[in-house]
């Protein structure tokens, strides 16, 4: 369903060649911050979405804010596009380089600047790993809540750029709900502070705008996040179901019972079997679906909630409900879930990971639709869901070496996303739009809505130099893509939710 | 400290006169939706900040979305500015009309469209009162958390426009954290949907941008809010202190003890006495300060927290800690706080209510600074704080009939706001910038930062027709105001936090 990438569709008209850009940059930046040889550039050709690969023109790895300012001013003057990269774990190609652009790699900004246990905040550089923040806060009994599955490797700058979620975001929110302030450098090389250490800031909420902006508005150079007190206890229940739709229905029942779990995850049979084979988490391999429901807080409270949830699950038709006996088993239950993607990778030469978000009540309907598509196209689909917040990750398995299988996988993926949009959801939850879903944005939004996005983008980056070709499609690109759609009779549903 | 209002400073160049505009509008709008006679316009000359009064050119009270579309298209074509008004309870003059502008009054959009207990959402028209949402949700055991003191009268559209807070926002967040989706009509008369019923939406976070946008980006026509389950129990502790700084310090101690209260409010002696005189809430009139600390949740949990907080308060030097005996006394404790503003109004012919937000740890320092300013200028100041989130409401008492007192009050107010900015806070918490603090925005932000705000504004409203002269000052205005500042030697501190 993706049109082959064509930079001209994104309105890019690069002027200078690599030698010219390098010459200008080396006048003001130290040699060691600029990589230019093929063998040095190659490791940066893709991020976590490795089906797209582009060797960047140059890679900049600055050490200081002053170097970033200089880099930005020079690129702005030369009209050279800039793509920013954090840990490179993104799953939508948001950090995919441009052949005629500079890749700005932020890994050298990896200091934890301050942990303030009274204010419950951490001030960190963007290259700090997500999990490292919680580790640094642990001595104070605090932690940073959003926990994408890649939390051991992904960095907070990328988390902000993608508005990352994770297992706990139903209860504790997405990245945007846990960030107080970011320092940025604009494409013109100017420093700005968005948000504040105080609870609210006047003017437009530019801080929220930067969360999920996918590197299109500015370079994030510092992040202040909220820290939360570690819950006194956390307990996890695992429920087995002989029917995947029953499990989907149980999710809504738990929420309707007045419980907001710390985590509420669902896996279907294929995902269970793959994870069990890989991790030996103790999952019931014969089940059609499992739910993992974590309850956290004060002990008495958690015990009450466990009893309530157990009752709900049993009434919803669970064939078995097990509570993790101890911390070790709880960690094991989660390890199976957190490693579900690599586990599925062991079942199939290739897989395509989707990231649609749907209203919770539509879970059974969407699961049924996915099963039908899987049958129709003869491709296995493993389902791993942040079920509580309706964020679905169908993993479509295929073999790229079999002619036509990649195209079939892309077709199924596109149809799944359209199903998500149809039931009132969106084409992405936490992985972002990036390069991957740039065309699907034309399905989700109307031209006049995309025009507003572009105008907001221009407010920060008039020349369109920051991460062009990602996140917000040009109207030109949508016209191309829309033509295909009309041809296939798949025009956007008139009742689609917009924005 | 406010420059006398001058529309020319806001770049407005009105062209048509009232008769011309009215003639054009009556061609497409029913007569009953358009008020034009002096006696019909007069009731709308101010909002809750009654020191500013302007009779609008015309008042439009549409009944249907189609009428709003028509109104917008016509005003856009004629280049007539539009100010939107909800319940008119705003405290910063955000709904102050323009002499040469149309005032769009949204009070006829007051229907609750849907309460969905499973999804825990309410879909309502913008004119629905804040408290009415909770009343409609009560049969399902749910409520809408943000509760500004004006909640009995203020409407949800205005809450979104001002990103309203309230007593419970420390624990449950500001309006922006509790809104899932808004429907808007642009100045060009087009409908858009921002956000979605799903947990996340792709593209830039325009929904967050609308929260606190003070009517400058579009007309809010529908709001979907999150509902929360009503806590099983809520208990409130009232602590007395013989020293206001000790009370300020105790606020930080409670948070540092790992407790996030449902509400954490502070009042000083003057505010206590005024409230007690008005409401007979049982406040200790001899105390220098009181803290009201509400703890909510599951009963066992709340009892634990009550014991912890009592210990913290006693160690912090509280002279007395009382727990409300029952629901009636709890309601009474809060009634005193929620009526503190009108209560102070009974003590003094006039008062000027400030709304600065500061980092929690700076409470003692700012309280001391306010006391010194009060002494220096000989004006009484009553302090009412949303202490938990650092949102301060000093009420400066004066008598406008005494020559020079208004000016003195404005000077003290300006100095308090500058003190807030100096300690890392902001010039507004929940009341917004509106007309009142338009000049202080020049203190808080640098010209290049204001330029970004203007560019974002232009992305939605290129001609600058929506609520001009509020929220974001023109650079022209700041240049005028800045000149005054340089003259008085009060240039912005170089270390001020920005944005």
From TrEMBL, chains A, B:
Its EC number is 1.1.99.14. This is Glycolate oxidase subunit GlcD. InterPro entries: FAD-bd_oxidored_4_C, FAD-bd_PCMH, FAD-bd_PCMH-like_sf, FAD-bd_PCMH_sub2, FAD-linked_Oxase-like_C, FAD-linked_OxidoTrans_Type4, Oxid_FAD_bind_N, Vanillyl_alc_oxidase_C-sub2. Pfam families: FAD-oxidase_C, FAD_binding_4. Keywords: FAD, Flavoprotein, Oxidoreductase. The keyword Flavoprotein applies. Residues 52-230 form the FAD-binding PCMH-type domain. Its cofactor is FAD. One of its GO terms (molecular function) is glycolate dehydrogenase activity. It is an enzyme of class 1 (oxidoreductase).
């Amino acid at each position: 369903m993706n049109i082959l990438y064509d930079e001209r569709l994104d309105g890019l008209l690069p002027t200078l060649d690599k030698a010219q850009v390098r010459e200008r940059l080396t006048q003001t930046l130290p040699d060691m911050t600029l990589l230019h040889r093929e063998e040095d550039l190659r490791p940066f050709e893709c991020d976590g979405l490795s089906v797209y690969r582009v060797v960047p023109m140059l890679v900049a790895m600055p050490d200081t804010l002053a170097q970033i300012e200089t880099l930005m001013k020079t690129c702005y003057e030369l009209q050279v596009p800039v793509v920013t990269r954090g840990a490179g774990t993104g799953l939508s190609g948001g950090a995919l380089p441009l052949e005629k652009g500079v890749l700005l790699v932020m890994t050298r900004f990896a200091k934890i600047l301050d942990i303030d246990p009274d204010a419950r905040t951490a001030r960190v550089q963007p290259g700090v790993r997500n999990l490292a923040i919680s580790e640094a806060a642990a001595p104070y009994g605090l932690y940073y809540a959003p926990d994408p599955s890649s939390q051991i490797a992904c960095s907070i700058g990328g988390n902000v750029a993608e508005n990352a979620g994770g297992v706990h975001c139903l209860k504790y929110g997405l990245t945007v709900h846990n960030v107080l302030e970011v320092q940025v450098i604009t494409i013109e090389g100017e420093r700005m502070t968005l948000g504040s250490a105080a609870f609210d800031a006047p003017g437009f909420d530019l801080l929220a705008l930067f969360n999920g902006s996918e590197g299109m508005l500015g370079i994030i150079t510092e992040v202040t996040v909220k820290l939360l007190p570690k819950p006194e206890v956390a307990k996890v229940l695992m429920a087995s179901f002989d029917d995947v739709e029953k499990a989907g229905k149980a999710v809504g029942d738990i929420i309707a019972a007045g419980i907001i779990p710390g985590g509420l995850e669902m896996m279907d049979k294929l995902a269970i079997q793959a994870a069990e084979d890989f991790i030996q988490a103790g999952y019931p391999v014969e089940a059609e679906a499992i739910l993992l429901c974590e309850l956290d807080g004060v002990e008495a409270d958690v015990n009450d909630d466990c009893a309530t949830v157990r009752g709900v699950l049993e009434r919803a038709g669970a064939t078995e409900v097990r509570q993790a006996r101890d911390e070790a088993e709880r960690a094991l239950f989660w390890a199976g879930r957190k490693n579900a993607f690599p586990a599925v990778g062991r079942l199939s030469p290739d897989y395509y990971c989707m990231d649609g978000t749907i209203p919770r009540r539509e879970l059974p309907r969407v699961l049924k639709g996915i099963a039908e598509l899987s049958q129709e196209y003869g491709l296995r689909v493993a389902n791993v869901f942040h079920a509580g917040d309706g964020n679905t990750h169908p993993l479509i398995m295929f073999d790229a070496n079999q002619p036509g299988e990649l195209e079939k996988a892309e077709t199924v993926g596109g149809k799944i996303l359209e199903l998500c949009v149809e039931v009132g959801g969106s084409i992405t939850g936490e992985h972002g739009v990036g390069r991957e879903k740039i065309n699907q944005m034309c399905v989700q939004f109307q031209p006049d809505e995309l025009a507003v996005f572009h105008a907001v983008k221009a407010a920060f980056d008039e020349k369109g130099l920051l991460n062009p070709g990602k996140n917000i499609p040009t109207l030109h690109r949508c016209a191309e893509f829309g033509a295909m759609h009309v041809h296939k009779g798949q025009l956007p549903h008139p009742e689609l939710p917009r924005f």
